[in-house]
Amino acid sequence: MNQSAAPKVNICGTGISNVSLPETMLLFDQWIETRQKKRICVTPVNCVLWAAHNPTLQNLYNEADLTLCDGVPLIWASKLLGSPLKGRVTGLDLLPQYLKHTSQKGYSNFFLGAKPGIAALLQKKYEQDYPYIRISGIYSPLFAEKFSEEENLKMIGLINEAKPDIVWVSLTAPKQDYWIYEHIQSLDAKIVIGIGGAFEVAAGTIPRAPMFMQKNGLEWLYRLYKEPTRLFKRYLIEAPAFIPLVIKQWFKQRK
């Protein structure tokens, strides 16, 4: 398990990095300034659940430089298991806060993924809000379960031509995590991070849950209300299986 950047808390076999949002941003700064290449996963409950039944995916998360806690249930689980996480580090929080920070530091960004037009909308919004922000490229590939070699080479070429400090990848999890893992060594970038659907929220096309829902672990309910067709299976069928896995781990630790 890669714990070189921060200790990881074992939740159902997946190590979740025990870092806060400010600590994550500080690590990003250090890696960019020292020109290190790092792979970051923003990891919700469903990814931990899928990884528990998929050794390849679990190894991908465990070997990531940071595997960030995207979900209050992961915090609850870490407390039950005796190793409390410091807090959530979601793509919905990290993307807008670090984009603002890059405008102050002069770091360059590349937006990869999301629906056609979303990355361009996000670029326009942030260039209006922060005139000194550097967005060196955007690209939204057509949806595919698995990209062709030609499409992969195109994405790699566009990123390498832009030479960004950080690549934000919005291809849905875990597809984005596999893509980054498979291609990071070919990318001329320092930090490559998968952030799920954060582009749409940051661009303003999908509203975020009210703060009281975010703090009380109900953001999933708001997202389900907004996107029932896409998220019904994830939240109402798959996610409940997380609870018995955590209880099983808790009993194992007590023994």
SSE layout and pairing:
Blueprint lengths: L7 E4 L2 E4 L3 H13 L4 E7 H8 L2 H8 L3 E5 L1 H9 L10 H15 L2 E6 L4 H12 L4 E6 L9 H14 L3 E5 L4 H9 L7 E4 L3 H6 L7 H5 L3 H8 L1 H11 L3 H13 L1
Parallel strand pairs: 3-4, 3-8, 5-6, 5-7, 7-8
Antiparallel strand pairs: 1-2
Helix pairs in contact: 2-3, 11-12
Please tell me about this protein's structure.
With about 260 residues, the protein is α/β, with parallel strands linked by helices. The chain has one domain. It has 13 helices and eight strands. It has a six-stranded parallel sheet, with helices on both faces. Strands 1-2 form a two-stranded antiparallel ribbon. Helix 2 crosses helix 3 (about 55-60) and helix 11 (about 220-225) crosses helix 12 (about 230-240). The mean pLDDT is about 95.
Sheet with the most strands? 6 strands, parallel
What is the residue-averaged pLDDT?
A: 93
The CA-CA distance between the termini, in Å, is 23 Å
Approximately how much helix is present in the residues?
40-55%
* Strand order across the largest sheet: 4-3-8-7-5-6
Note the total helix count. Answer: 13
Radius of gyration: 18 Å
Provide the β-strand percentage band. 15-25%
Low-confidence spans: pLDDT under 50, at least 5 residues? none
- List the secondary-structure elements in sequence, H or E: EEHEHHEHHEHEHEHEHHHHH
What is the 3D form?
globular
Q: What class do helices, strands and sheet pairing give?
A: alpha/beta
Which oligomeric form is depicted? single chain
Number of domains: 1
The beta-strand count equals 8
